[in-house]
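Page 37, continued from 36.
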C-alpha cells in the first residue's frame, strides 16, 4: 500500500488513517497493526477489491480474516504488556 503514494493517500482519506507498520523497535507493533487492520477491515477489503489485480498474491481471504480475528480476540491487552524484569 505504501509503495504507491496515490493509493496510500486514497486509503488514508477513505479510512481516516493509515494502517501503521510493524517494526523491530516497538515490541507491540504487530499487535497494534493487527488491531488497526481489524478495526479498518471494511476499508482494507475495499482497497483489496479495488486493486485486486495488483494484490491477488497478497489478498486476504475470508478464512484469513477469520484467523486474524481469532488472534485478535485471544490476545488480550494484558498479554501485550512488555515483559517485566526482576532484579
Amino acid at each position: 500500500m505504501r509503495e504507491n503514494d496515490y493509493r496510500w493517500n486514497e486509503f488514508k482519506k477513505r479510512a481516516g488513517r493509515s494502517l501503521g507498520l510493524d517494526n523491530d523497535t516497538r515490541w507491540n507493533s504487530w499487535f497494534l497493526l493487527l488491531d488497526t487492520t481489524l478495526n479498518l477491515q471494511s476499508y482494507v477489503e475495499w482497497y483489496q477489491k479495488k486493486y485486486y489485480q495488483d494484490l491477488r498474491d497478497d489478498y486476504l481471504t475470508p478464512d484469513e480474516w477469520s484467523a486474524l480475528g481469532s488472534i485478535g480476540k485471544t490476545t488480550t491487552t494484558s498479554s501485550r504488556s512488555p515483559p517485566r524484569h526482576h532484579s
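The chain has a mean pLDDT of 84. Flag for discussion at group meeting. The longest helix spans residues 62-74.
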